[in-house]
Amino acid sequence: MHKTYKELDNSKVTQYLTNPTLPIIKANWKGNPMSASGRFLNHQYPFVPQFADILKWKSKTNPELADKKKDSFRVDTIETDAFLTSGKDGICWIGHATFLFRVKGKLFLTDPVFSSPSLLMKRFSKLPFSPGRLDDLDYLLISHDHRDHLDESSLKSVFRVADRVEVFTGLRIGSFIQNIKPTVKVQEAGWYQQYSIGDGIELFYLPARHWCKRGLTDTNYRLWGSFLIRTPLLTIYFGADSGYGGHFKEIGELFPNIDFALLGIGAYKPEWFMEASHTSPEKALQAAEDLKCKHFIPMHYGTFDLADESLSDPIRTAKQLFEQGNYSFQLVVPGVGEPVYAGEKMPYRYSF
After folding, report:
1. In the chain, where does DSSP find H-type helix?
2. How far is 249 from 242, CA to CA, in rounded Å?
3. Class of 65-341 per CATH?
4. Could you state, in order of their start, the residue ranges of all structural domains in the chain?
5. Contact between 13 and 175 (Cβ < 8 Å)
6. Longest Cα pair distance anywhere in the chain, in angstroms?
7. Which residue of 4, 126, 218, 269 is 20 to 30 Å from 337, comparing CA positions?
8. Beta strand 330-331 pairing with 339-341
9. Mean pLDDT for the stretch of residues 27-54
10. What is the structure's pLDDT at 2?
């Protein structure tokens, strides 16, 4: 049973921020609420990470430690550029929250992280092909500023080869990206805003229950969010990082024909600490049900060790719960580099 939603105390809101050049798709939405200190606020489950909670987590013995030590799971990697050369519309997982989408012939990349974004964050999954193969990339989506989603070295790799790429992201993230490549075209959006993209494609920036931080003093200075790409034939929701909340049901109501929902299932233990930032496998399945999607592709597992659980725990648990439950969508589990094409047989990897 999920908690009753805790709504934001509007007395703590001093201003609302949006991109005035982009349309707002939600009636009566003023913009993203902000505190007196100029920091963004979640409109449900208000949350600011506290150093004391991190100390509490790290000071306790990890009950999953024995399982982690004996766990040898690695996500399957199909070392091929088949998706890049196919020309077909669809989805290809590159690991963690990095995906390629091809929609109406246009190539999108989400939250590119190609190696270890820090010395403390070892990468456990391989790449299916060299980032140098991304020279045909059209659009880059950056959901938020955490280092496992916004990695400076990976962005440089993209910009070296993708000369015409355009970037879509959240409010206040654009300047960080343009510090890396000043000439790159960037559009920033607030929640419930539609980007100007063309090509017969609609692109929206939508809520997530999360937060932002890269340095010591910039907590929630930049906005976090999720993306939805829609054409008459294909709709993809990229959930990025998010805890469970009412936004999933709302997005499902705003966009009633989601073909694929990409949702995180990892970095969820201990739940008392992680639930404000990430969905557990159980809550990700519920989120997919709330979205009324046709297919759910899990992500945010098997690439980085970010929490107490073992690398295999999230996908093993998600598959067990799905097979025991009665869900209205299909669970799709591709390997890294394995193409997923609409209307074709869907992969369902890993047996436990």
Report:
1. 51-59, 65-70, 82-86, 152-161, 174-180, 247-254, 271-274, 281-291, 313-324
2. 14
3. alpha beta
4. 65-341
5. no
6. 53
7. 269
8. unpaired
9. 85
10. 33
